[in-house]
Amino acid sequence: MFSIDSIGAPIIIIAFLVEYVIALRSGMNEDLPKDMLANFALGLGVLVTGLLMKGVAFALYSTIYSKALFQPALSAGLWVAGLLSCDLVLYWYHRLGHQTRLFWAAHVTHHSSLHFNLSVGLRVNCIHSFYRFLFWSPLCWLGIPPWMILFFESATAMWNVFIHTERVGKLGPLDWIFNTLSNHRVHHASNPEYIDKNLGGILIIYDHLFGTYVPETGKVDYGITKNIHTHDPREILLHEYKALFRELKQVKGWRDKLSYLFSPPGTSPKPETAGATIGQEVMEAV
């Protein structure tokens, strides 16, 4: 049922090894190989936790699906509905990761590299594997089969690894429909005009619908606007959680603490700066 994982994981690892050898032989700055090794370590973590949590997700999805409003027969229409609905959930889940301190604490791991290559696609925080599947569970009640949701999750994960490269330019009309390499370069930029843009998974249509689409028009500066300058996987994984909970101690009362967790990244616990905007989120996030 999940054979896409057994096929995809080896392909991703082989692609990483090829790219790593190229980086070593190209005589580039030693920072790049170190960054790639850190990304690979983080990628192994998310592959293991993701595999474990798929069983949990499938059990939950199956329970909800047994009580679904309806269970349509497999058809081309159901495949289209599955793709559109799964990508819509991913868009809003991804957007939440950019707009709240709590979820940005995990997602910042993916954005904290100063490079942009296939290995950055592996630079994912494994902590989110323990809860992200919950956001897709309502689709089961609406009639999307559990196996289809997990299929699109795996397909999207593979897609999002291979769009991390500068070796391919723009793709014309495809850039208006899909989350292409050009669109994803924009997403990883720290340029003010590019921050929090192009949040789609496989498709880019929801960015057009909800006003977060920006085409690649100029040089992209990768990373976050206050970079962490470390290749320690533990620090890459946890640095924003440390900052978040350190600041959370300054907030009094459980209601204010909860509100702070869901405030925009960059929001200060101090009353005079509590109104920080989304546009400031990466500036103060780490």
Secondary-structure topology with pairs:
Layout: H1 3-25, H2 31-65, H3 76-99, H4 101-111, H5 137-141, H6 146-162, H7 181-187, H8 205-210, H9 233-248, H10 254-261, H11 281-284
Helix pairs in contact: 1-2, 1-6, 3-4, 3-6, 4-9
Q: What attributes characterize this protein structure?
A:
disordered C terminus, mainly alpha, 286 residues
Quickly describe the structure.
By secondary structure, the chain is mainly alpha-helical.
Describe the structure.
This protein has 286 residues and is an all-alpha fold. 55% of the residues lie in helices and 0% in strands. It has eleven helices and no strands. Helix 3 packs across helix 4 (101-111) and helix 3 crosses helix 6. It is globular, with a radius of gyration of 19 Å.
What is the structural class?
Answer: mainly alpha
The tally of beta strands, per DSSP, is 0
Provide the helix percentage: 40-55%
Report how far apart the termini are. 40 Å
